[in-house]
């Protein structure tokens, strides 16, 4: 209990997750900027139907490049230095994933098993706060208008704070032991757990686990289920997470609302969805160490399935004329003409999107990141996590690149029905492949994959 109440651990986690604030900030940046640049008077800045998909998807290519960098930096520089290194390219927002992956691994390796689920959800909470505090959302509520250039500058403030705080934080004890720095690792664990705790016992367990994995991974070892099973599970979860359509929906949130829901202004809709997302991630953080990972994944995928199916069926069966009712009302009011009655059926897209984001944030958002850092073996954690992230963001790039062309060609219902099929697959994948890791140390999880004895995870 004294280990759980040590405030230094939470300070180290807070310092690390500040980078995720900028990541969430950057993720939703295209949503309000695309409409602004589509109407920009300058031909050099104006977006058309060919350049708008690239503007919305190029961020994911940068994230994939960040994942490649992580494969090297995570094991050679260490978790803390990799996070700090991410501050260098963050001004372009194209290498944010250099930060996100080592943050998740760093938190997983320094956390006590009793709070690892809660702390593992903190990167997602900060990413949601970053998107929610995005100036257009705040500006909409305050009645202000901010230039898109200044939005890019605002994203750098949390990065500088992150670098400053991390200078005073310790590195991961597991990484230090893998580098042969035993005294420094013991001091790091003492700092994280507290001097009046039984940190020496935990240190010996970590040391024994690291000793068994002292060598680098060889190609022959990839045939070992101890390595390939957790890698396939982590990669499959990251692939299905992106294939469920979350990045497309977040990037093109305002264009989607303009085609469907017109009850509120698109800026208000985005802010409302952000609040729902934040509440859901907070619920996941509180319940993850009590209810477990798998039950939240089941609930999450179920909610996402119903939401995508509802959205697709609504767009398919509700005539497009209904979607213009409120928009016409707004124009009529501004011209002092008689207003048409509000058609509340147009609330369905907003509610479906809110429930989709809520479902995602309860499980398949934070838990896929957490499980990736939990189940990957220490000797392959840096390289394997980088590979999973590269595959994840290349999938996101493909979806965001083709989302608008598919919508323009086949209609908006086709992507949502496709996402519904994928989320149904998420439920099957969770039941067949994902282990429960609640309350288990990283060493116990590794022992499960090494021996196949499920008793380690019961």
From TrEMBL:
InterPro entries: MFS_dom, MFS_sugar_transport-like, MFS_trans_sf, MFS_Trehalose_Transporter, Sugar/inositol_transpt, Sugar_transporter_CS. One of its GO terms (molecular function) is transmembrane transporter activity. It holds the Pfam family Sugar_tr. The chain crosses the membrane at residues 9-31, 51-73, 295-317, 344-371, 383-404, 416-434. Coiled coil: none annotated. It is found in: Cell membrane. Signal peptide: none annotated. GO terms for cellular component: plasma membrane. Residues 1-438 form the Major facilitator superfamily (MFS) profile domain. This is GTR6 protein. It is a multi-pass membrane protein. PANTHER family: PTHR48021, SOLUTE CARRIER FAMILY 2, FACILITATED GLUCOSE TRANSPORTER MEMBER 6 (PTHR48021:SF59). Keywords: Cell membrane, Membrane, Sugar transport, Transmembrane, Transmembrane helix, Transport.
